[in-house]
């Protein structure tokens, strides 16, 4: 029986591995060997990785691929993508090549406003609270000056602070709804520091406010935290071409393909079951670039999916239409990203990825990431309404299956050639592999 361990965080990495392997794995010797295989031989680099999080035992690798030929606002990019799923990089690359000869992608940053809130309980007269807030609002700004001075020098800072009454949702619940401009930083630490200062000022000044009763003076701050929902930090990405230029497949007309693409998006607009998978495909492209550039994909995912539900029902993030003889395809999404701070200044591969992207500003990275999502969705939809998703996906997955089966290089070569003209499934690959081995 395994017993709880005390002081695990104080053990060395080797001691952590030994305890974990001996107590929780079926083959402790192999586990220990495997975890050490993934250590970096460069001790300084490994120490850097170890200090990113707590209780590290090894590194967990994802493939880093490149999707080339992305023409964005007439500038050519090769986009780094960190992801484990077969066909994502290939699909993005194919979409990039397709739109390269059709004018490329056009992008616009529509806003960069980020949000944080101080959530508090106030038991008293709302009018008095409004008057109190008006009186201390300048102080909220001034007492946060030590935190904002450097950001303001660069053109950012706190843009507004509002008092919001939320008592219709929760008794006695109010909030300071605060907006920020954080420029090339994602800004989470900056925003949270400002919010905590606002909370201190709020509580301190309430105790001194003469119009408050004793009960009203005791404002209870529940929490002060940024929001990962940033509906005013928006980027738009779009592509368009004449309908007659849309298709490269002799088995379907350009006009039919255009209408099928519009129908596919419309279905994702009205059917949440389809919308979730539709948007997951968009996130395949977005998350891969977010990971490669050291940003927080969980925050981005949460914010984007909230945005997909902003009208009360979960719906497609992309849009498509035919106007006259022109096919148009676009998306607008919230993206709160950074190109300075956090891992962007620490992780060597993150720095390399940003270098490959020609050292973008946060606004430029927003546009690149949005394009990756749009390209991924276009590639997926085009496959879905023509050959189906499995033909391309399973051919990309073929090597994974062969590796699972233990195929050698010559067997891989022969079976790859075989499946150029045969349907790929786990059963068919296994059968073909066994037949090859028995010949």
Written overview of the protein:
The chain has 439 residues and is an alpha+beta fold. Helices cover 49% and strands 18% of the residues. The protein is built from 16 helices and 10 strands. The protein has helices at residues 13-24, 28-37, 43-50, 88-100, 126-142, 145-153, 188-208, 214-217, 254-270, 272-292, 297-308, 348-356, 362-384, 389-405, 409-418, 426-438; strands spanning 64-72, 75-82, 106-109, 114-121, 157-165, 173-181, 220-227, 234-242, 318-323, 326-334. The strands form 3 sheets. A 4-stranded antiparallel beta sheet has the order 3-8-10-9. The protein has a 4-stranded antiparallel beta sheet with strand order 5-6-4-7. Strands 1-2 form a two-stranded antiparallel sheet.
Q: Taking strands numbered 1, 2, ... along the chain, how are they ordered across the largest sheet?
A: 3-8-10-9
In total, the number of strands is 10
What is the percentage of strand-forming residues? 15-25%
The low-pLDDT segments are: none
Order of helices and strands: HHHEEHEEHHEEHHEEHHHEEHHHHH
Mean pLDDT: 94
Task: Assign an overall shape.
Answer: globular
Q: In angstroms, what is the radius of gyration?
A: 27 Å
Q: Output the structural class.
A: alpha+beta
Major sheet: 4 strands, antiparallel
Jot down its keywords:
globular, 439 residues, 4-stranded antiparallel sheet, alpha+beta
List the helices and strands and how they pair.
Elements: H1 13-24, H2 28-37, H3 43-50, E1 64-72, E2 75-82, H4 88-100, E3 106-109, E4 114-121, H5 126-142, H6 145-153, E5 157-165, E6 173-181, H7 188-208, H8 214-217, E7 220-227, E8 234-242, H9 254-270, H10 272-292, H11 297-308, E9 318-323, E10 326-334, H12 348-356, H13 362-384, H14 389-405, H15 409-418, H16 426-438
Antiparallel strand pairs: 1-2, 3-8, 4-6, 4-7, 5-6, 8-10, 9-10
């Amino acid at each position: 029986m395994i017993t709880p361990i005390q002081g695990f965080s104080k053990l060395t990495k080797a001691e952590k591995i030994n305890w974990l392997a001996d107590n929780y794995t079926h083959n402790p010797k192999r586990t220990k060997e495997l975890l050490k295989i993934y250590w970096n031989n460069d001790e300084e680099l490994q120490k850097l990785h170890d200090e990113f999080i707590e209780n590290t035992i090894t590194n967990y690798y994802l493939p880093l691929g490149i999707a080339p030929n992305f023409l964005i606002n007439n500038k050519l990019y090769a986009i780094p993508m960190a992801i484990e799923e077969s066909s994502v990089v290939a699909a993005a690359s194919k979409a990039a090549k397709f739109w390269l000869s059709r004018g490329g992608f056009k992008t616009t940053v529509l806003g960069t406003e980020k949000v944080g809130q101080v959530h508090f309980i106030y038991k008293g007269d709302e009018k008095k609270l409004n008057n109190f807030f008006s009186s201390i609002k300048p102080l909220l700004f001034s007492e946060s000056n030590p935190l904002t001075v450097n950001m303001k020098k660069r053109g950012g800072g706190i843009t507004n602070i509002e008092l919001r009454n939320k008592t219709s949702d929760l008794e006695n619940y109010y909030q300071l709804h605060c907006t920020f401009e954080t420029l090339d930083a994602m800004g989470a630490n900056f925003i949270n520091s400002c919010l905590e200062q606002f909370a201190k000022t709020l509580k301190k000044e309430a105790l001194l406010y003469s119009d408050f009763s004793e009960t009203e003076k005791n404002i209870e701050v529940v929490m002060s935290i940024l929001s990962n929902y940033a509906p005013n930090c928006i980027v738009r990405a779009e592509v368009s071409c004449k309908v007659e230029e849309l298709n490269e497949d002799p088995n379907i007309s350009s006009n039919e393909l255009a209408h099928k693409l519009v129908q596919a998006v419309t279905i994702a607009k009205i059917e949440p079951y389809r919308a979730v998978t539709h948007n997951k495909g968009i996130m395949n492209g977005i998350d891969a670039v977010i990971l490669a550039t050291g940003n927080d994909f969980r925050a981005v995912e949460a914010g984007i999916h909230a945005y997909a539900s902003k009208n009360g029902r979960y719906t497609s993030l992309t849009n498509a239409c035919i106007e006259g003889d022109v096919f148009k395809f676009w998306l607008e999404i919230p993206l709160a990203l950074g190109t300075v701070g956090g891992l962007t200044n620490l992780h060597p591969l993150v720095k390399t990825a940003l270098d490959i992207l020609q050292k973008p500003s946060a606004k430029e990275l927003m546009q690149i990431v949005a394009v990756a999502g749009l390209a991924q969705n276009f590639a997926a939809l085009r496959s879905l309404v023509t050959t189906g998703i499995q033909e391309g996906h399973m051919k990309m997955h073929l090597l994974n299956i062969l590796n699972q089966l233990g195929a050698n290089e010559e067997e891989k070569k022969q079976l790859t050639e075989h499946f150029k003209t045969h349907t790929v499934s786990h059963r068919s690959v296994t059968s073909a592999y066994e037949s090859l081995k028995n010949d």
